[in-house]
Amino acid sequence: MTERTDYVYILGASHSGSTLLAMLLNAHPDVTTIGETAPGRMGDIDTYRCSCGELIKDCSFWTRVVGRMRADCPRFRLDDFGTKFEFPSNRFVNRVLNCEHRGTLFEYLRDVALGLSRRWGEARAGIMANCYHLASAVLAESGGRIFVDSSKLAHRLKFLLRIPQFNVRVIHLVRDGRGVALTYMRQDEYADAAEPGLRRGGRGMTAEPTAARLPMKRAASEWRRCLEAAEHVLAGLDRSRWIEVQYEELCGDTEGTLQRIHGFLGTDHTGAIADFRRAENHVVGNGMRLDDTSQVHLDERWKSILTDRELAAFDREAGALNRRYGYV
Questions:
Q1: CATH class of 5-324
Q2: pLDDT in tens, 233-267
């Protein structure tokens, strides 16, 4: 049997520091990431920038990855990796696929429902193959042996765990829900590149917004559902296969936290490049990939931005879960 690929999945809510964590881990020669392996709307591929600063279509690394991918996946495109577990041609199947992970019984019923579609079964096999070939191509180009995926979604992890060529381990990344909720409410200001001209995928503030603003009740609910879905999928994993990391500890004690994560990965933290921005990286996803600072700082702007009314709304919707993770 072919040796399995070490595949590390960062699980959690969006805007919890996953891109930062992935890039910090990428500073180790054994570890490679491209950020999200099933990125959302990348918009116009002619204007989308890789984290190296080049337009992704002109980036030599991505050009080589595309060449490798097309040997096994002829339809691979930079604007559609073919790695997203979706089935747009069947509305029912797509709705079932997009439901959050809700535990053993629900997942059994989901599998039964999806099993009614032979065409979905064929499509799923193709998507899984694309996921495997993408990780293999990226590792081959980088020389790494551990692939890090910052896609975060629990229901995506469910399918990745079923790819036999992957040895999947999970980093469950948690951030104070009030900080995450603020990013959902006003993503452009609080969840993107520091420089406004690099926001919205590197196209600047004149481009179409990447996400709609949400009221606090909806934002808090989104965060809570993401954490609950993560808990459901982790309940089915042996405890040796996952580790929990808080965004606040990653920022407050970066070296100590990375040392703990590298211990979990089986890598020597001392081999990492001290300045993670100096490492070669070719990340897609959150706009912070385009920032030029290597300084890691704790973002707690929610403490001065959120109103008492908004904080009360968050507490009603998700306060109990937030406190369970130690946030008071």
A1: alpha beta
A2: 999 999 999 999 999 999 999 999 999 999 999 99
Q: Is residue 39 within 8 Å of residue 284, measured between CB atoms? A: yes
User: Residue 40 has what pLDDT?
Assistant: 64
Name the more confident of 213 and 81: 81
306: Cβ–Cβ under 8 A, 6 or more apart, which residues? 178, 181, 182, 216, 314
pLDDT of 200 over the 90 cut: no
Mean pLDDT of 128-146: 97
Burial of 119 (0-12, 13-18, 19+ CB in 10 A): exposed
| Cα 117 to Cα 123: distance, rounded to the nearest angstrom | 10
Phi, psi angles (nearest 5°) of residue 215 = -70, 160
Residue 33's nearest CA partner among 56, 59, 7, 67 is 7
Kindly report the average pLDDT of the chain as a whole number: 92
What are the backbone angles phi and psi of residue 148, rounded to the nearest 5°?
Answer: -110, 125
Contact 11, 233 (CB under 8 A): yes
Instruction: With cut-offs at 50, 70 and 90, classify the pLDDT of residue 191.
Output: confident
Q: Is the dihedral of CA 49, 300, 273, 150 positive or negative?
A: negative
Q: What is the DSSP string of 66-77?
A: HHHHHHH-TT-B
Residues 6+ apart with CB under 8 A from 136: 5, 68
Among residues 248, 272, 207, 278, the alpha carbon closest in space to that of 44 is found at 207
Query: Which tens digit of pLDDT belongs to each residue from 304-316?
Result: 999 999 999 999 9
Helix residue spans in the chain (DSSP H): 18-26, 60-72, 91-98, 104-115, 118-142, 154-160, 177-185, 187-190, 199-202, 216-234, 247-252, 254-265, 302-305, 308-324
